[in-house]
Design a protein that fits this description.
With 294 residues, the protein is an alpha/beta fold. 39% of the residues lie in helices and 23% in strands.
């Protein structure tokens, strides 16, 4: 499976450490670990953090062909505070280099020839006008690619207008239960459960798949009228940063494998739980370790 991911690459700055992250970067790295072909589009600054990010991509065997170095802009950072349950609160520092990524006509030609199966993006990156324009151009240039939209709402980094635009372009959507509530508040004010949300909004926007994560309680998946729920896996949470992004990569992996929806949901829950049990958004892990979770 060929996966094209566009969005932010940044450093999660904890009180005691810095770890490379950004939801789209995390998704790309985990999809690569699952054996898929991945290109990641983003940008870093010409600074020590930017050089360290590129070095880490090489370690992860994640091509940096479309990661630009932007002079005069700092590599992205986010200050992260974890609560007692390991759940993160983010303070995003912008503008950052990833806001100013661009592609040449030759780059677009190469991506069209590569012919990705999925184009993946989130919300935060598209708040910047240049990044939003880039995402629009990619959608137009790659009509065959299915579009995976990870809603991933962050404070002061979304508007109803932006959500409407991105949801209208999506083939598959991933969000958590709190984000589903926020979207309902914006668009119709109804609250009748997650299965009803998935059914209604899929009909409204033409989605083929909806994934709703519920933390330790697991997830629900909707596909073409079928709704399944899968239990979560209890782990000692070290930090939950990146767990949802790993879930997303595992979700795409299971869909590509043609598994039944219940098996896809279970595998995605296992991967997300394993990542939450380790420090950092992209720790070392193997699918075999996920299978051992009970």
């Amino acid at each position: 499976m060929r996966i094209l991911v566009v969005g932010e690459i940044l450093w999660d700055v904890f009180p005691d450490a810095e770890r490379l992250g950004g939801a789209p970067f995390n998704l790309a790295a985990h999809a690569r670990r699952l054996g898929h072909e991945v290109y990641f589009i983003s940008a870093v600054g010409d600074d020590p953090r930017g050089r360290a990010a590129l070095a880490r991509m090489r370690e992860l065997d994640l091509p940096a062909r479309f990661v630009r170095t932007i002079a005069g802009q700092a590599t992205g950072t986010v200050s992260v505070r974890l609560d007692s349950a390991g759940q993160p609160d983010f303070t995003i520092h912008r503008p950052a280099a990833y806001d100013f990524v661009s592609l040449s006509d030759e780059d677009f030609d190469e991506l069209v020839s590569w012919d990705p199966d999925w184009l993946c993006h989130g919300t935060l990156h598209c708040m910047h006008p240049q990044a939003r324009t880039l995402t629009r151009r990619l959608v137009e240039a790659l009509p065959r690619a299915r579009r995976f939209y990870d809603v991933n709402l962050r404070k002061h980094s979304y508007t109803p207008e932006l959500l409407r635009e991105l949801m209208a372009k999506a083939t598959a959507v991933k969000l958590n239960d709190a984000e589903a509530t926020e979207i309902e508040r914006f668009f119709d004010g109804r609250r009748r459960g997650l299965a009803d949300f998935a059914e209604r909004f899929a009909a409204r926007f033409g989605w083929e798949l909806v994934a709703v994560t519920r933390g330790a309680e697991g997830c629900g998946l909707w596909r073409k009228g079928e709704w399944v729920e899968a239990r979560g896996y209890r782990v000692q949470v070290v930090d939950a940063v990146g767990a949802g992004d790993a879930f997303a990569a595992a979700l795409l992996h299971g869909l590509d494998a043609g598994w039944p929806l219940a098996r896809v949901a279970d595998f995605a829950n296992r991967v997300g739980a394993l990542i939450a049990s380790r420090a950092g958004a992209v720790p070392d892990w193997t699918p075999e370790e996920c299978a051992a979770l009970g």
